[in-house]
Every structure is written in C-alpha cells, then in structure tokens.
Hints:
By secondary structure, the protein is α/β, with parallel strands linked by helices. The protein is built from 16 helices and 13 strands. The protein has helices spanning about 5-10, 20-30, 35-50, 50-65, 90-100, 120-125, 135-145, 160-170, 175-190, 210-225, 250-260, 265-280, 290-300, 305-315, 350-360, 400-415; strands at about 80-85, 105-110, 150, 195-200, 230-240, 245, 335-340, 345-350, 375-380, 385-390, 395-400, 415-420, 430-435.
Amino acid sequence: MRAVDIIARKRDGYSLTKEEIDFFVQGFTRGDIPDYQASAWLMAIFLRGMDARETIDLTMAMARSGEMLDLSGIAPVVVDKHSTGGVGDKTTLIVGPMVAATGLPVGKMSGRGLGFSGGTLDKLEAIPGFRVGLTKDEFLRQLKHVGLVVAGQSADLAPADGKLYALRDVTATIESLPLIASSIMSKKIAAGAHAIVLDVKVGRGAFMKTEQDAVALAQTMVAIGQGVNRKVAAVIADMDQPLGNTVGNALEVQEAIETLRGNGPSDLVEHCLTVASQMLILAGKAPEASDARQQLRATLQEGQALSKFCAMIEAQGGDAAVVDEPDRLPHAPLVEKVVAPRTGYIASIDAMEFGLTAVDLGAGRQKKGDLIDPAVGIVLHAKVGDLVMQGQPLLTIHAANVIQLDTARARLLAAYSWSNKPVQPPPHIRRIVDR
C-alpha cells in the first residue's frame, strides 16, 4: 500500500477503505508519511468529502493513534461535553459542577482558546494556583474521588489529530465537515466518556454561521458517536450575541460562580440547563428534560453545584476562596462604564466584534502561544430586546491601558444596532439533534 495511491483514489472521488485510512493516519503519525503528502490528502478530502463510513473510520484511526482511556472502572457511565466555541462561552464551568452534583461523573479534557476570550483552560487558570496539566493517573483519581475533572488534553490522546490540525490550519482545509467532525470526536472517544453532549454554536460569533451548517455538523458527529457505541446528542444554540453578560477569563469565572449560586443571566442559565439535561438523559439518570431540569435546578438551589466546583478547584491546586472572595481573581487596572448613546431597543449585538475586541484587549489569542491577560474583558448590562435609556450604563470595559480602552470603546459601541420599536429577543436554543 502506498500513500500516493491513497491520495489519488480520494482525489478521483473514490471511497477509501478502513485499511487505507488506517495506513495513512498511522503512517503520518509515525512520521513515515511526509507533510506534503498529508497536505495533498487533506485537500483531496476537502474537495471530495467523505461518506459516513469513511468519516467513522477516520475518527477511529485518529483515536487509535495514541492512548485510549478506559473509564469503566470509574462508574457505569461517565459523561463529557464539547463546545464548538463562542463569545462568552463559560458553559463547562457551570454544567460540569451541576451534572457532577447529581452523582454523574464528568471527565473533560479541554483545549486553550485561539481567538475570542480564551478556552476553558484559560478561564480556569484565572483562578490562582489552578493546575490543568494533570497526568493520566491524576485525571482518573480525581474523576473517581471528586466526580469532576477538567484538564488539558493529553498529548498521548489522538496525537494524529494534533498533527493533522496543524496542517489543516496552514493548507486552507479547516472548513471540511468530515475533518471537523472526526477531529472533535476522535479526542472525545479517546478520552473514554460513555456519553457525550455536543454544544454546537451557530451565528455571527460562531464557527458555523448558518443553522443548516451547524445541524449538518451535529448530525455527522452524532452519527460517528452512535456508530462506535457512544451515546451522543447535540444542542444547537445561538451565538449572534455573546452568551451571558461577560467576555473575558476572570470575568467569566466570576459570572459562572454567580450562576452556580442561582443568580445567572437567563440566556446562560437556559443554555446550561439544556446542555446538562441532555447529559443526564443520555446517561439514563433522567427519563426526560423536565425531570433532568428539576434535578439540576436543585443542585443550584441547595448549593451542591457550587460545592462541587469548589471541590474541583481544591483538587487541582486552586484557591477555592475566590468563590466567596472574587477580589482574589485578577482585575484590570482600568475599568470604565460606557453609557448608551441614545434611547431605544437593542436590535442586535455583533458577537464577532465583541470577540475580536476581547482579543485585542488581551483576553484571547491571535496566534498559538500568545499570552493571555486573564483580567481584561467586557461586561454587558443589556442584551438584545432590552429597552435602554440614553445615558444608562450599556457595558463596562476592563482594560490594561488607555489605548486599548479607547479603541475598545469605539469598536463596541459600533457593534450595537438600535430600534425605536420593541424587538423580540432571538430564541437561544435552536434545536436538539439526538439521532
């Protein structure tokens, strides 16, 4: 079997066999197949696509390229979630503790953000002392004894994905449905969870701009999971405006804590309840969404979710006192409230512009390896559909210097559109894909 023949077959529109996909993925991972041939193969897949069977085979070849965790010794069902990202997406910090507080173990390996406001690991590292670099044994031990762990992706899990993604990033082959789906699912499957909920964002501030594309990605990933005996569902959620009221790492940690206290903004609470409910349903812990929501709301009302969050912080070396003393979190030297320039209803908030502005403030990365400032970011005081009076606080900017503050103020004010008539807020949850 030769790499060049496999490239040619895909270039000519043929379906690849499981053996051909395994040969190529394992050969590339070992270094036997060079980057230039892998780049050609990726472009052939980008142009010709893959059928359902090929996509499953690619996912499993990538998952098997490294170590695969076995979580069967932890509990009969361990759950995980994955978000495709978005502006102000602090969902894991809320969903993980809520679900774990019901007695269902949550084991999640996360990544760092590239763009917008940092990834889950960046947010957690805003907590002084919090350690995301756990060994496999530490990950498993915490999952067993605490029931909740969020750590960095192990280099031993799905190493083929890391190598292929680096090539996709520089060969204009990122936007390929089978490549996106197999990239996400290979890591989730290798991490060992029995049930996985996919949090797929759609809209101006998301990777998937249309609901049609988001649903197609969700259906592909659900099909992959079910094809390899995992229970998988996907939530399609709006990202035309930021999620919740904060964008920025320490600010989002603080908002997550308030949400765990039962004081979160309505869109964020609804989003987290929807995602968490699907996790309980897949695990067989609730027969339907209404029962799942009842269990989850109880964890907020009775303080169990917040306690679970504290337990995770302490287990990973963090300062759990931030829960009661938010001043222990990093804070920016410059904080300015920006008032509404006019009276009216907010018709739209450009989530993408908020995300890019957060990056320029230092809350996200423009390229891999960039340092993140955990203290900077944005707080929204009104969302789409709200009536705001001229001079009323519209948003607050947390910045490191005057130049960044002035630039952010102008960009963010331009990101709003206004209406003289009432505006109906868009539905946040678009759809659930479970088969």
